[in-house]
């Protein structure tokens, strides 16, 4: 039984995840949205990986205000990400504990040499922000 509302279900569909994808999860803590995590695992038909020995198709990075330097965390998130892969940065929504200022996220993405492409609401408390390598470096 899912506790997500229709808006969140649409948000999860916007993530571009499909069955068979290998997805790594970074920054997990007790405050993450378990319904969202379960929905992602159902879509990819697999568990989320904490560590990978191979390249991954996507990374979910849970990011809170006090987790550290945004740029450093983004660069670390790329370690196992395939050249064509993408990163979803999950941040607490405005007004929630640990909220990351949009300007801090945008600055960190830019400083890491990445591109912020889209955002989606994926649960009651979390938003997801798609981050990719610039097109020139994805070849």
Short description:
The protein has helices at residues 6-13, 34-44, 70-77, 102-111, and strands at residues 23-26, 56-62, 81-92, 115-121, 126-132. With 139 residues, the chain is an alpha/beta fold. β4 (115-121) and β5 (126-132) form a beta hairpin.
Q: Residue ranges: pLDDT <50 for 5 or more in a row?
A: none
| Separation of the first and last Cα atoms | 41 Å
Largest sheet composition: 5 strands, mixed
The overall pLDDT average reads 90
Tell me how many strands there are: 5
Could you spell the SSE succession in H and E letters? HEHEHEHEE
What strand order characterises the main sheet? Answer: 1-2-3-5-4
- Count of DSSP helices? 4
Q: Strand fraction band?
A: 25-35%
| Class based on secondary structure composition and strand pairing | alpha/beta
Radius of gyration: 14 Å
Helix share of residues? 25-40%
Overall form: globular
